[in-house]
Amino acid sequence: MRLSRALLLLVLLASAAPIGLLGLMVVRSRGGIDGAATAAVILSLGLAALAAELLARSVTRPIAECVRGALEIARGRFGRQVSVRTHNEIGDLAYTFNHMSRELASYDVENRRLIEALERGYLDTIRSLASAIDAKDPYTRGHSQRVADLAVEIGREMGLSPEAQKSLEYGGVLHDIGKIGMPDAILAKSEPLTARERDLARSHPRVGAEIVSGVAFLSAAAPAIRNHHERWDGTGYPDGLSGEAIPLVARIVNAADTWDACTSTRPYQKAFNPEEVLAIMATLRGTQLDPAVHDALVRVIRGRSSARSAPAA
Fold first, then answer.
1. Residue 37 has pLDDT above 60, yes or no
2. Could you tell me the CA-to-CA distances from 145 to 115, 127, 189, 256, 304 in Å, in that order?
3. Which of 56, 186, 269, 307 has fewest C-beta within 10 Å?
4. What is the pLDDT of residue 230?
5. One of 136, 166, 179, 270 is an active-site residue; which one?
6. Apex CA 269: angle with CA 267 and CA 146, to 5°?
7. Is 179 among the catalytic positions?
8. What is 136-303's CATH number?
9. Where are the domains positioned within the chain?
């Protein structure tokens, strides 16, 4: 807008000077100002103002279009094209801008493809680590992936973002990674653990968080690894957190972990059927489990049951 006013003023000044000079010459030649001369001067000034306005718009509108396009690029909307058809330096600028925008869009697509491939590689590595953990105990084989799948379903039910769901998947797969150095005798023990064994078993969330602490892309999943044994009432471990002080990813993985533990056969217990587990989980609502997470879990389980019982089309 400021450029438009400046151009308008410059053109008016440039055109007013010769018009004023011409008017002065007419006055001198006629010995005064008559109506025809006054009308001619006013008409000339009006035409000059109109020409100045058209010239200012012809310059500022293409520039404004390029500015809008640049703002779209700055917001990450690559590929934005500007409609400038002037055959001058501004038109050349617009052509160059459009070419740059198309190139950026192409690079963005390629970068997204590479990032997705890299993330798939990360996830494959994570799953391999989880398989190494599960292989230590035949009773828990597949446990980590089941926890991850259920945690993602709960997160989706709660309306969490795709990024948060990805953290749930990573956190679910790796929530027991701290057990990788734990003696097999403790993992498979059917008798009650001694105090020392219990302390060692309870160290796995802290150890797991330390294992992933230097991995940047797992930073959002690390709280699920460290705090998935915290309880809503504050009696969990390792940090004794309570309520919403417990990271949401950890609360969700806690619920998914509890569900899978109850529905799986372990050395110290038989698997319960889903209705029995729902009853058990109801007793944990508000003590171990976040009520909102528990309710979302129940909806997911009920949805799974309905999907299995629905007749095939």
1. no
2. 22, 8, 23, 11, 17
3. 307
4. 98
5. 179
6. 80
7. yes
8. 1.10.3210.10
9. 2-76, 136-303
